[in-house]
Design a protein that fits this description.
The chain is mostly beta strands. It is built from five helices and 46 strands. It folds into six domains: about 55 residues; about 80 residues, Immunoglobulins (Immunoglobulin-like); about 110 residues, Immunoglobulin-like; about 80 residues, Immunoglobulins (Immunoglobulin-like), CATH 2.60.40; about 80 residues, Immunoglobulins (Immunoglobulin-like), CATH 2.60.40; about 110 residues, Immunoglobulin-like, CATH 2.60.40. It starts with a helix and ends with a helix. InterPro entries: ICAM_VCAM, Ig-like_dom, Ig-like_dom_sf, Ig-like_fold, Ig_sub, Ig_sub2.
Length: about 600
């Protein structure tokens, strides 16, 4: 059954309005005049509403496909206009227009071989102009050129000043879809985006020129870099993918900046021995290249980057100030120089670490020739007959534990001692219990002792206790060291550790190691000697391991109940269990004996 609106919509629009009076007469026949007028007005409004409803819902307008085109200026373009039912239709366009067809069709093509109208808006229409559809078309053109320049040419730029860059994009359309990006390319080739500009001119379709500006403040790191801009025409998903990009020329940057001293190790203090040569080199970064001046302690000025003083004296002590200058400013750096008295003798190496019985050697030297000698229990050298600048001390087999070789000059005015350490590795390293516990009991404390025999110097000895699990994993327990730096001859050392075993230690091993750490002049890595290994036998009370443990259960009458109990156990629980059984038997016998005697006496 058709609704009233459906019936009306199937009729002619003109018929709606011509029939309104007759419909009103039908519904108001025989009624008063005022009622008839009101009904005519209401029915008229109803028919108008239905007419509008039909216009918006049932009118069969054509469909344009594709509905949007992005076409490069001068390229061909094409789109179809189609309808679900055959109608007479045409294309209204400044290029490629098609008049109304003579017969009804379901599809009509619009096409141009070279689109040159920037503001062309092709429209598909049907007979009578009841329906009109417009093709959304964008005609674009890539720029003739893209160029970058300064608004006011600065040659050179100055660090910290602001300059105006401008990017000119010529003859591009549509300019509202243009995005201009400024870039900086460092001297190493690294490109950095500075900023992006875009103008809101979506209503302008014809080609235009665009000028885009950027404020740029250079730093000294920008010297030698390049500046450029790029123009990207972003026309959406229907446009070229990726969007077309045109780059500008590149501007070379020449940045001037004041000097910055790069002297290594920088502004510092130093000590130099009298008679040596002092050389200070001042260097700085600056553009243009700086000139250098040195202000010396004697208030004299030297115009050069390197200052050199040979055979320096104590009078040359003081501040040496470098000044780097260019037209943009200056930078200073001060080096404090202290000239000390020349040492009469120098022993090299100044410290020796020698294994007992090995050879040893050291040199004694002087800046100027002098008569010198070596005083030592082994390898001593008497005062030389003539002045020399160097004298060697040497022994083929060092056996004196407390030796202190000393180099001296004629008259004993100067003397330098050689710091020497004679060492010996231990004869043996052993570990044991202070009181032998076999077996150990979980939670009890036992005293371990590590004996290191015949080692020197014992003050440099470090003893470490270790535990090795049954799986081979080694754990450090503790480290011991005795402060006996004054003892140089071989000694024995005993080191103790309190150890409390747990059940997890059953089957593990204990050991200790002796490491002789003699510093950077000694053997590297420091020598280490390990002890024997003690096997651990730990007794502990049972711990039930039944799975799933203590629990409740139900069983049907007549079934078989089987429960198994298992536990981690060692010998001690077995002995304790046997003892408990014996005690219970003794108590039972005692009770039975008492009962028997009481029964007989009662009879």
């Amino acid at each position: 059954m058709l609704s009233l609106s459906t019936v009306f919509c199937k009729a002619e629009r003109a018929h709606f309005f011509n029939s309104s009076n007759r419909i009103a007469e039908y519904f108001t026949e025989g009624r008063p005049l005022l009622v008839r007028w009101k009904m005519e007005i209401l029915i008229g409004l109803l028919i108008s509403s239905l007419s509008l409803y039909c216009d918006f819902t049932d009118a069969e307008c054509p469909v344009i496909s594709p509905a949007r085109l992005v076409v490069k200026y001068g390229d061909p373009a094409s789109s179809n206009c189609s309808s679900d039912t055959p109608v007479e239709m045409g294309w209204e366009s400044t290029q490629g227009g098609v008049g109304l067809t003579d017969k009804e069709v379901k599809i009509l093509n619009w096409r141009v071989d070279s689109l040159t109208d920037w503001e062309n808006n092709p429209k598909c229409f049907t007979d009578g102009g009841q329906c009109l559809k417009q093709l959304d078309i964008t005609v674009y053109k890539l720029p003739d050129s893209v160029s970058i320049s300064y608004r006011k040419y600065p040659d050179p730029m100055v660090e910290g000043h602001q300059y105006l860059l401008q990017c000119l994009v010529q003859n591009i359309a549509p300019i509202g879809r243009l995005r201009v990006t400024f870039y900086k390319v460092s001297a190493t080739g690294e490109q950095t985006e500075l900023d992006t500009r875009q103008k809101a001119k979506d209503n302008i379709k014809t080609p235009e020129n665009g000028t885009y500006i950027l404020h740029f403040t250079p730093g000294r790191d920008d010297d030698g870099a390049q500046l450029l801009c790029s123009a990207m025409l972003d026309l959406g998903p229907e446009g070229p993918q990726p969007p077309a990009v045109v780059e500008s020329n590149r501007l070379n940057t020449n940045v001037h900046y004041k000097p910055q001293i790069t002297m290594s190790p920088g502004c510092f203090s130093m000590t130099i021995t009298e008679g040596n040569t002092l050389s200070l080199n001042c260097s700085a970064n600056g553009n243009p290249a700086p000139s250098y001046n040195w202000l010396l302690p004697q208030a004299t000025m030297e115009e050069r980057s390197v200052v050199t003083i040979t055979n320096i004296a104590k009078s040359h002590s003081g501040d040496y100030t470098c000044i780097a200058i260019n037209p943009l400013g200056n930078s200073t750096c001060t080096v404090n120089v202290e000239v000390t008295d020349a040492e009469c003798l120098v022993v090299s190496p100044a410290r020796l670490v020698v294994k007992h019985g090995d050879p040893a050697s050291s040199n004694c030297s002087s800046d100027i020739p002098v008569e010198m000698g070596w005083e030592a229990f082994q390898g001593g050298v008497g005062l030389t007959d003539k002045e020399v600048k160097i004298l060697n001390w040497r022994v083929d087999s060092l056996t004196d534990w407390k030796i202190k070789p000393s180099c001296f000059t004629d008259g004993g005015q100067c003397e330098k001692q050689l710091d020497i350490t004679v060492y010996k590795l231990p004869d043996s390293v052993s570990i044991s219990y202070r009181k032998y516990p076999d077996p150990m009991v979980e939670g009890h404390q036992y005293l371990l002792q590590c004996l290191v025999q015949n080692i020197a110097p014992i003050g440099r000895l470090r003893v470490t206790f270790y535990k090795v699990s049954a799986t081979g994993e080694q754990t450090e327990l503790d480290t011991r060291q005795k402060a006996k730096d004054n003892i140089k001859t071989p000694e024995n050392g005993t080191y103790t550790l309190d150890f409390t075993p747990g059940r997890d230690d059953a089957g593990a091993q204990l050991l200790c190691s002796a490491m002789l750490d003699l510093g950077p002049e000694g053997p590297q890595p420091p020598p280490v000697m390990e002890s024997n290994r003690l096997n651990i036998n730990v007794h502990y009370k049972p711990q039930i391991t039944r799975s799933p443990g203590c629990f409740s259960m139900r069983i049907t009458e007549g079934d078989t109940l089987s429960l198994a109990c298992s536990a981690n156990v060692d010998y001690l629980p077995i002995i304790a269990g046997l003892a408990s059984v014996v005690i219970l038997l003794v108590i039972s016998c005692f009770i039975y004996s008492s009962y028997y005697k009481h029964t007989r006496m009662s009879h």
